[in-house]
Task: inverse folding
């Protein structure tokens, strides 16, 4: 095979292999619904609604419940998906994190940061949250 044809064949092969590996196979439709995690701080329930509203509830104890609501933004063009929560009545700043689908029903989330400049860029196994899709989805 001439060198030019071999080069074209290699470029075509790499394109076929690398483009699917660099794109995210998940979309917002996969995110919608309720996700639950049992975390060191207590049970966490997160709901992503189709109208882009977000609800985070952490039951630390029977008498201590933390609830955060807001509007979320995601960018599925990235491998580690940036997630931003804005318009949070309970806080005076947005929250920034990253998420990743481990499976269709399993979502990995890094800890929240109050500034986009300190948004996590990787997962820390000691502070990440593993969420499982709830059967009670809206």
Result:
């Amino acid at each position: 095979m001439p060198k030019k044809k071999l080069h074209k064949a290699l470029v075509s092969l790499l394109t076929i292999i690398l483009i699917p590996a660099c794109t995210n196979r998940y979309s917002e439709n996969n995110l919608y619904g309720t996700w639950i995690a049992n975390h060191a701080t207590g049970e966490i329930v997160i709901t992503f609604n189709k109208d882009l509203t977000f609800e985070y509830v952490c039951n630390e104890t029977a008498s201590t419940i933390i609830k955060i609501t807001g509007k979320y933004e995601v960018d599925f063009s990235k491998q580690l998906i940036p997630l931003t929560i804005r318009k949070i009545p309970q806080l005076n700043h947005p929250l920034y994190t990253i998420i990743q689908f481990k499976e269709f029903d399993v979502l990995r989330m890094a800890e929240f940061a109050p500034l986009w400049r300190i948004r996590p860029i990787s997962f820390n196994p000691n502070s990440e949250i593993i969420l499982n899709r709830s059967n009670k989805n809206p």
Notes: The chain has one domain: 27-133. The chain has a mean pLDDT of 84. The chain has two helices and eight strands.
